Protein 1
Amino acid sequence: MKNVLGYEGQNVVITGAASGMGQAAAQLLVDLGANVYALDIAEVSTPVTTAIKVDMKDRESIDAAVAELPQQVYALFNCAGVPCPPFAPSDTLLINFCGLRHLTESLVPRISEGGAIASIASTAGMGWKHSQEQINEFLALDNDFEASAEWLNSQLQQEAIADPYGFSKQCIIFYTTSMARELAQKGIRINCIAPSPTDSGFMEKLTGEGQVPQDMVAMFLPSNGRYATGAEMGEPLVLLNSKLASFVSGNNLPVDFGYCAEVVIGQRDDMLGIC
Ligand SMILES: NC(=O)c1ccc[n+]([C@@H]2O[C@H](COP(=O)([O-])OP(=O)(O)OC[C@H]3O[C@@H](n4cnc5c(N)ncnc54)[C@H](O)[C@@H]3O)[C@@H](O)[C@H]2O)c1
């Protein structure tokens, strides 16, 4: 049963490791004996193998970080993300999705058979099927960062996208689901999680600087009545990329103490278009 999760001595890459869910996952990975390469725009305090400054909305910054990473990677954790407000819609889409996709596709050639990718989406992205047409149009831009920002701004002008943050998370869920087939052919798994509201730097920005009232966020809390901790999200991510989940791929796992289950079964209003 030793090394049951399979991380000992393995190279793992994690974004958003300076705070919240990513920090909790990075600490756990260090404790499990992984060589942790942490990418963040902020200072990383966890004692990782290597911390690299990166701005996930900047393709060149990501390329520079990738150049510093090892040639063999066992697992990738995409945790970096920002809320909108207070972040601008185009920055939000670039950080939350375009940067995530560029890093993922840069590292896939370094991930060997048995490796895995896990990303953080959101319950706010669960309604992706209702945006299928826009997601297709957006993904057809081939992850050109400039064209993506322009496309989003034109969608906003036409009032075709109401929630840029939700759209960025819908894209993560769709991308995760649609990449599973191609990656399965290489023996690589890909999954994401959809967290309910979590007490983190993200939440402080959203409800503090962003002026989204706390009672509005509270409408999306699970029936246990509380915010999750960063660790309660980081831990399932570590599980999904571990040996214990070796046949699990293409899934978006709601980590929400049953919030989505209540919506699906009709016990709660479907405010996020989940069904
Ligand atoms: N907190 C919530 O309620 C909640 C709910 C659903 C999903 N999420 C998602 O969870 C993920 C983790 O967020 P968190 O709640 O731990 O918040 P957090 O703010 O504590 O952590 C986010 C991390 O991303 C980093 N980051 C931000 N912009 C970056 C950039 N341009 N380049 C590189 N790194 C950058 C931050 O420095 C920070 O370390 C995010 O993707 C967020 O969208 C959060």
Protein 2
Amino acid sequence: MSDKLIVMEKRVYIKTFGCQMNEHDSERMLALLAGCGYQETKRWDEADLILVNTCTVREKPEQKAYSFVGRFQRLKENNPDVIVGVAGCVAQQGGERLLARIPGLDFVIGPGKIYRLPEILHDVEKGRKGACAVGFEDGSSVHLPISHSQQLRAYVTIMQGCDNFCSYCVVPSVRGRERSRPSSEVLAEIESLVQRGTKEVILLGQNVNSYAKNNPHELTFPQLLAKINEIPGLERIRFTTSHPKDLTEEVILTFGKLKHLCEHFHLPFQAGSNAVLERMNRGHTREEYLAKAKRLREATPQISITADVMVGFPGEREEDFSQTLELIQDVEFDGLFSFKYSPREGTQAAQWKDDITPEIKQRRLEVLQELQREITLKRNKKLEGAVREVLVEGRSRNSPHTMMGRIRCNRIVNFPGGPEVVGELVKVKINEGLQNSLRGELCR
Ligand code: SF4
């Protein structure tokens, strides 16, 4: 048997926590590992390498990641040959300390050092214990291969890091300052994806609206969108995340002008009270946020707006929380990602007293989520009777005879159909708006 064949038998199990950026990093790590002879497995008990890609942005995924890694310590007792690595933001923040804290952990690799994964793995395979590569990316990560798998929807990083320093957020310290990829590389990556079957790209960055803001020789974000829109064969473009202070009128007017740009905008607001926003160092007021959300809806009435919000930030009074609820009612978000504040090590807010009790945080979260559930259902019901374009992603989880896809404003639709429509853009009549999805029928 050749060496190559032996190498190809290796399996990697990767568990990803956190945001789409992490999902994308996992894809890139899988592509690098494929070059080292590792194939992905969905079963951790048959893996030769277990990689946990972690997130520290919120407390819950961080704790989950720790308990997940802990499970593999027991696995290592039975199979000492299995290699266990931690990647992502917990790795970046913890570095060498993680190796000391988690017995049996073989290596730690931060998001900025992904390109060193083959070298680290090689060292560990040769018997080196406790390899650690953390620190900010030094230009090499942008040349990482993209996943070789055929993907109908693919993530494409256009920038990394953030310059905003919101007082609660670890991103600037774990992902570094803003760095934009050259537009030529972004366009080449998307062209290559489209040639391999991708129909929808989701452009990723912590703050995509400030793409290349310090480089007068580079395309602006709206110009980049316009170039991507011209790529033959690409059907849909989405992007996330945006910061309200960097959302310009030019970007707002891009919707409707570019055929392939989908009508969905994720615009986090975090809190509805100016006092809280100021302590969060968000750089925008409640009034500015409301004005931009209004402009988005005026310019593109069918646009769907989603956001991130947190409750229980230090010093959040009942009246501050009421203002958050009012803002939610005013904007009528299509969906919200809502969280309870938890202090993150190394942030400015972590130095302040976490003075809102867990019970109050929980109550506020429940009240907020109940309000949003009503609004989401109402907005989903408004779509009943409409015919919408759907990119069919595959079978629905609940039934083999039901297909699932997304309309342009990112809602999930289930409809009766067969696998022949997977990967196609079809027209679906929406018959029912439900809490988390829509139900419809194919228009023949
Ligand atoms: S904008 Fe604020 S919350 Fe978003 S990544 Fe940057 S610092 Fe974090």
